[in-house]
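User: I want to check something. If I give you two sequences, will you return the structure for each one separately, not as a complex?

Assistant: Yes, each is folded on its own. Here is the first sequence with its structure:
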Amino acid sequence: MGERSLIGQKIPRIDSWELVTGKGEFTGDVVLPGMLHGRILRSPVAHGRILNIDISRAKKLYGVRAILTGRDIPQKVYGAGSGGAPVPGAIPDEQILCVEKVRYMGDPIAAVAAVERDTAEEALQLIDFEIEELPAVFSAEEALRPGAPLVHEWAKGNIYDHTVILKVGDIEKGFKESYHVREDIYKTHAMNHAPLETRVCVANYDSSGKLTVWASSQAPFRLRAALAQMFELLEKDVKVIHPFVGGGFGGKVDIDHIELLAVCLSKKTGRPVRMEHTRSDQFLAARHRHEWTIRLKSGVKRDGTFLARSFDVTLNGGAYISSGFKILLNSVGFSDILCRTPHLYFEGRRVYTNRPPSGPMRSFDHVNLRFADNQHLDQIARDIGMDTIDFLLRNTREKGDVTGAGYILRSCGIKECIEKSVDASGWKEKRGRLPKLKGIGIGLGSHTAGFKSGESDASAAMVRVHEDGSITLLAGTEDHGQGSRTIFAQMVAETLGVPLGKVKVSVLDTESCPPCMGCYGSRGTLQGGRAVLVAAEDAKRQIFEGLEDLWEISPKDLQAADGRIFVSGVPSKSISFEEAVKVCQGGGKVGPIIGKGFFEPSSERLSIDDGSGNLSLAYGFSAQVVEVEVNPETGDVKVLNVVAANDCGRVLNLLSLNGQSEGSVHMGISHTFYEQVHFDKKGRTLNPSFLNYGIATSLDMTKVENIWVETEDPEGPFGAKGIGESTLVPTPGAIANAIYDAIGVRIKELPITQEKILMAMEDGAKHEGAV
């Protein structure tokens, strides 16, 4: 009989046909009878006091059904703490519509619902308003200066809540005893998630008091909880329907003001209202990746072993909190998750500025920290005359380690990732021997794979076995492009021993599906998958118990595989899966076969003071070796090839994993060279469209050799763990190290542009510098 017939194979996505034929429904495809279109009037200044808003002219426009200002709706605040999974230390700070002040250029100040979108847009032009412009701050450095204008009056020094500090060992003693000490400063930039589908929502608040919302969201159950909280409804009276999502990358985790305004306008008009971000809105008002300043200091022994490490980080958080404080807390543990350090000091702060809010983006900003640290590690090795690989292998962590912040590594294949990527890339033959202007570099990465984001953060699933032997899976974990539906279908089919085509995964809504707090932090496979696996096992148990009388044999002696149920060791004594279901349901012993699964992670909420605690059930690890060639005339950098070795716990779907890795490398290349949101001196976004916001194309992509390191994580379903973010983390640092190997100049600020390359080379090849 077959064993693990589906696990580890290349399985195409079960929803591919719907997506490629256009039959799959996205939120933007939803059209309801009598539906109105909503648009938002946004602040033209970055910081100001609202003196007056006059909607009288706009109200007279034919087709306008409602206009709202901040004083027309509940003056509640929301943020990352809104909903069912509060962020540690979160202080909600954002209004649905601004009432007294605006805090960034794009802050919403009024909303219109009209019969057509163009009419709503015209009405915005007829709203008269007066805003007294106030002094503003746009960089973290400006905001932290004594006497700087305050973005929020309660935030002293423009620091959100407090500075996070972790101390392990005696940092001063560690540096004093070190053979070599190195300090560096690195900077990263603001980026936009740039999903193909912008944020979009349709809300229908009907006469019975029932609220139904179609939303492009990575966390529908969190959205339901937040809407119930904001509008003082019972959660049972809020239904969030989840169509296909056209990309998320973390930007669709937190609640957005368009969802809140769609509900407000629907309540006001008694009709369904659709609201969406235009592409310009997505750049002006959607969450960005944080801009970081990272100060690193490390001390090592003569043999290259770490003695002390100090991290000082400052995050430009923009005007509101979003999930920014959680990103800061997570960065504490990320600082030493890869390398052992007996003496560790971490100090970090998230700073308010008058820029658009920053929030979670793929890797939860871990990619920024590793861009800095991967270069820092490479340079330390060079300083003391060690090969970078030997230096890394001497210091990197192993299974069973507990980090300074308290992360427990129940599985860890980082050393094997390093060794396999080095062997496959020919590192030993190439390092120091490549032609001029060609270079090779390595970067390491890691990320969570099943963390707890609130007091209660369970995932649940149900497996319904129908009379004809077909199976429906209801799972609360949504799919925003990563392929969760396919992975879950594989798990169910494997457990019940049936062909994959027998399993249908339902389209999610919060009324018919069991709950899950969201799919982010690479936790879908582990956390959602554990619930699915429990449900499938429960359904199998019911079937086996139903067959107990048929063969007068204990259920523990039965197995399911190849579409049949058989007695262990006696394959000839078997029955088809369909016949087994009929036997179970026909005799009345079992009745409807509905397997139920529930999984609550045992990971911890982090301390809001020092970021300590075991953040996640499991952690993914990655190593990438990159080769580049630099054009000395143009400053252009060509990525020649990438070898990516990733610790995924256990391969479930090889096709999906390869896609995740290659997509991550593409995003990493784009992150390194092209993507940056530019602002002028007034805080205006200068490039709010794909015409002038750079994104890597297929022409910029290179060959990626994927290597999968299987460590069999004890917490993961079939030993698997999430990998969708750790595969992104090494890329920018690996590229930067390869560029240094090629031209001898260290570029310490992202993005790495042609201008920066040329300026650095003009300052003198083969010398240490910062641009």
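And separately, the second sequence with its own structure:
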Amino acid sequence: MRAAISLGFVRPPALALFLLPLSAVVSHAQTDTSFEGKTITRIDFDPPSQPLTTKELQSRISVHPGLPLHIADVRTSIQDLYRTGRYSDISVAVEPDGGGAALRIQTEFNYFISGVNVSGESEPPNKGQITAAAKLELGALFTDDQMEQAQKNVEELLRANGFYSASVEVHVDRTPATQEANVYFFLRTGERARFDGVEFLGQFNVSPQRLIRATDWRRRFLFITFPGWREMTKSRLQRGIGEVQETLQKDNRPLASAALEELKFHPETNRVTPVLNIDMGPIVQVKVTGANVSAHQLRQLIPIYQERAIDRGLLLEGQQNLLNYFQSQGYFDALVDFVQSEPQPGHSLIDYSVSLGARHKLVQISINGNHYFDTETLRDRLSITKASFPRYPWGRFSQKMLERDRNNIEDLYRANGFRDVKVETPPPIDSYKGIPGHLAVAFKIQEGPQWLVNKLDLEGVSESDALLLRPLLQSIPGQPFSDATVGADRDAVLTHYFNEGYPDARFDWAQTSGPTPTSVNLRYTIDAGKRLYARNVLVRGLNATRPSLVASQILLRSGDPISQSKIVNTQQRLYELSIFSRAQTAIQNPDGEEDSKNLLFHVDEASKWSLNGGIGAQLGRIGGGTTTFDSPAGATTFTPRLSAGVTRLNVFGLAHTVGVQTLFSTIEQRVLTTYSIPQFMGNDKLLLSVSGLFDDSNDIRTFTAHRVEGSVQLSQRLSRANTFQYRYSYRRVTIPADTLKIEPELIPLFSQPDRAGILGFSFINDERDNPVDSTHGFLNTVDVGWAGRQLGSATTYSRLQFSNSTYHRIGRNLVFARAFRFGYLQRYAGGVAVPPGTPSWEEVPLAERFFSGGASTNRAFPENQAGPRDLETGFPLGGNAYLFTSEELRFPLYGDNLGGVFFHDMGNVYSSITAINLRFWQLNRQDFDYAVHSFGFGVRYRTPIGPIRVDLSLSPDSPRFVGFSGTRDQLLSGTGTPNVPQRINIFQFHFSLGQTF
């Protein structure tokens, strides 16, 4: 016989699953006292495979084979199993088994969301927006009730973006072994609805045509409007309503509003008509008397324009903003008051009256009474600034800034144990040193006693843990005591335990008086809680990506403590593969009481294809000079540039990338193909890339080069600052004879194709604080290459290039930057067969020589105009060595974004390494082996992508040379005028992006 005892439990509601008392879940209990106290012979689970380990099951239930059966123990066991969060229903049946009782525990599992997947074209909204709208939290408990609401949310989002006929199908894949519920949304969006007009309700004094233009819902290209309407999207709808409101708020109506009253959908035409309710609000005129403020600035300062409301609080805020604005302009005694009136119904006048007073210049900021901190340390925390020309001609000062600086100094002292510190700011001194308008500000500091930690006790931790924790703490004996240091200790302790797998760690502290009046004894009480381990590490969302690639990035394994730092680092490593648009992580069953939990990573793969494009220009030098035969000394040029490219991500599912990038301009046409393999051979510090280049360029005015090149490079990142690069390149460069502008006898020789196979090595040591705009640190690069016949090269030569840049901050505002660049080219064999008597340096193929000079090396030259020149035409021929040095003094010029620089460049491209010298003067018009200097001034404007750079240089020793007057045909026929004196213009102008070095 079976089922003498049967206990059944109703599935608890999801929100109370883990806290429900036993009395709320027991539905019935049929007992037979004959089984009470019987020996339990066996316990069977149905299904046999349970989500908890055998060890955890045994610890969760109070009934075991060989023990007497008690109904109370059965109920306790079921309650403990429920607390794990793994079960939605549990029932127990008892049947006789010989002289004892056999238990059969039947369970139904909970499922947890392991991913939300979206298929179907809908953008916008994109997949991330759809996932967010579903409101299904990764790792959380899954219930069927959630799906109906999630489906409605997604459908509502699609309708809001114009998909009125969209249908959404939902499918859930359940995996009993890991209790996962993977949710799939299948979208059939249909055609997106279009606008077909707009209706306006209410009274308004703006023409409907003007409001329709403001919406930008009509079809248009650039500034041309075409018949028809654009597709409706949520962002386009909201943006259009906002533009209508901006239009209405012009003409002194800051309270005007446009609200969406209704969206009329016409199913027969799949069109939408928005209905906007317009409220013009009163005419509000804001005047400022006694001072000049632009309309744009006024809208920024008076908050009624942002809040679209008028109340006294906002008007007072505007008063304070105006006061701070005028004080920042040097009117430190300015007074601002306002009057609000209604001259007629529907009109509101707000008149801010300003009394500027005399304009002041903040010339002195003194700090007195400080002993613990030096004055410069405190000055670094001030926002008020002394006047300095031209950056801050009046200084920066306002009462609000002064108060904030006073608080900052007090907070700094309190954080270092000075609990009773007081910082006073007496009224600023006018007419400082008897000069009217000069202002002096003082900070008077009363530090008071410093409170120190006398003793720190750690409770609740083992001695081994204490040894790990003490180096992390700030409040150690002898150090300052403050709430800030205790807070920092709390964060350090909890972070340590979170990273060791203790998610419920707690920290408490108490203080008692120390042996002196200004000392304290601290006691930190730490409760680590229960350590949580990873049962399984689950990766979901992979379609094209190979699981082994992702597994190699995950720093946690089954059985490891769940470390928050390892989870975050894993997410970062996944993002660094550049193939995932999103990488989420969650702990499955977060509220359940378990010894170990499944750790879930869900990734969304990025689009495989990406396109890019850009339009730009390059501006050459200013200054004319005497130039002939297509300007051998360079000319003012404006070169438009157009770039486009396509990239394929995640090739073969291994995070490989293949791309094609093109560049078209009047001086260069380029096609570059690349194939990149990150984490080569499973090493995240190795990057292998293979590239092919097709390039036609005439940026060197002497010739046009047709270049075909293939290369393979392995980059090895040793640390954050140090990188090695190993490469092999093979290229073939041809120079059409009709593009060479050199001595006719050499044209047949130097137009021969050049083959170069080069084995190279580079080392990069980058210790700069900011590669885009460095203020301290240094950068070293070394590049070595060898071209030999064994590598396919027609000429055997070696190449060495070295650069060193350093950056030093001087005071608060100045940066001194310097750079040194050296290059050396040594030929051993091969090359062109030059006539007897030709300098040996010319035996290196023309395309392999060093061409330099310009915006990034020596600003005395136009681009690539340094070094030896053809003695008949005057065009540059390149050299076998170069040496450049540059010094820059960088300083703020005006405000926070505009800076200036004084610079000096020196150096040249030399015919050979033995010809390098620092001679200032040129011996004759055939001498180019000397140091050319340039002195100048530049302007830097800070942007998010780097500073925009404009440099103007003066070169007192710019090279003189002789050229040819006539045409190319005359040059070849021996006619025309030779030996025409020329010179590179002493003034050069350079415009580019980024610092010089």
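Because they were folded independently, the notes below concern the second chain alone. The chain has 17 helices and 45 strands. The chain has a mean pLDDT of 89.
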